[in-house]
Specification:
single chain, 346 residues, 16% strand, 9 helices, six-stranded mixed β-sheet, three-stranded antiparallel β-sheet, Immunoglobulin-like, flat
């Protein structure tokens, strides 16, 4: 059995396990994250952080074209939210918008201000659809004092005062200017002495030709690459574990929720061996997705996004665990567009 057959067999086992647990029925899931735009520049930057306790509403057009609210959720302590809609509705014309916030979770960043975002379809299988929404923002009343001045709109300058109307009083006549005295002509300067010609320098010796430069090595981080967990566990590819190492603890990398579920002693290398059970499959594919996100900038998931989806799945149902594991599995296989760009380590 080659690698592709193993991959499809694993996907079949995951789907069959999910179907046996709760059964398959159609529904759509929309997820996203809300950030506090501290500098009020209208985008997520280095100064912003995920916002807890923020209400997000999903508005969709009805038969008359009027926008109506279909659902409303509150973000968790990671700033994430998730909405579920039964059936397989068309969410192409819907818009997710921050509505209001609670003072406890937002710490003074609950006045809204960001524009709505339309959900994007990320995954569809067995009448189940997974949508994602680009980051939403909520803004404080005033920018923070540490923000650069160019990050938020500057106040308009004071308008120029209108010119004072001319006085109606008569202007006195000035006396005429006296003529300038006559200056004597400038004396004629003597000619410069004749300078001798510059001596001719000998020609410079010819330098030997420079040796040709070796070809530039490829930059793996800029290439589109996605590798399954089998490749990451091979000894000849051990050098690609750069940002995190196999002995790192799962609880340290993925946070407290993962530590409560998997324990504080399990390592990433041990988690890569898990199979046959939804939560172990999620840990294996989540760890693989995190490694791929650090190895290639074109990987579908950002490292922070992998950790957020991992924790969101662990806080949900078993079926949500299976859906997240399937999404990671598809991304790690390249979705039919990327291949594994590993070269054996020297």
């Amino acid at each position: 059995m080659d690698w592709s057959q193993k991959l499809y067999f694993t996907a079949f086992v995951v789907v069959a396990t999910a179907a046996s647990i709760r059964g398959i029925h159609g529904y759509a899931m929309v997820s996203g994250t809300v950030f506090c735009d501290q500098c009020k520049d209208g985008q997520v930057s280095l100064f912003d952080y995920p916002l807890n306790g923020t209400k997000v509403a999903m508005a969709c057009p009805d038969n008359n074209g009027q926008m109506t609210t279909w659902g409303e959720e509150t973000t968790n302590w990671l700033g994430s939210f998730a909405m579920r809609f039964d059936g397989t509705p068309d969410l192409g014309g819907c818009v997710a918008q921050v509505t209001n916030s609670s003072e406890e979770g937002t710490r003074g960043c609950g006045t809204g201000g960001g524009q709505g975002r339309s959900p994007r379809l990320m995954f569809r299988m067995f009448d189940m659809e997974m949508y994602t929404v680009d980051p939403l923002i909520s803004q404080p009343e005033d920018p923070m004092s540490f923000c650069p001045r160019f990050s938020y709109p500057q106040p308009h300058p004071n308008p120029v005062s209108p010119p004072t109307p001319p006085s109606t009083l008569p202007v006195p006549t000035l006396p005429p200017t006296p003529p300038l005295p006559h200056l004597p002509p400038m004396p004629t300067l003597p000619p410069l002495p004749h300078l001798p010609p510059m001596p001719t320098l000998p020609p410079l010796p010819h330098l030997p030709p420079l040796p040709p430069l070796p070809p530039m090595p490829p930059v793996p981080y800029l290439e589109a690459s996605a590798c399954p967990h089998q490749n990451w566990m091979m000894p000849e590819y051990r050098c690609y574990w750069k940002v995190i190492n196999p002995d790192s603890k799962v609880g340290v990398v993925f946070g407290l929720i993962a530590a409560r579920k998997y324990g504080t002693d399990i390592t990433l290398w041990e988690g890569m061996k898990g199979r046959g059970e939804p939560y172990t499959t999620l840990l294996r594919e989540g760890t693989t997705a995190l490694l791929n996100s650090y190895n290639s900038v074109q990987f579908p998931y950002h490292p922070l996004g992998v950790i957020q989806h991992m924790n969101w799945a662990l806080m949900g149902s078993t079926q949500q665990v299976m859906h997240t594991a399937l999404s990671f599995l598809r991304a790690n296989s390249g979705n039919g567009r990327f291949t594994c760009k590993f070269n054996p380590c020297k």
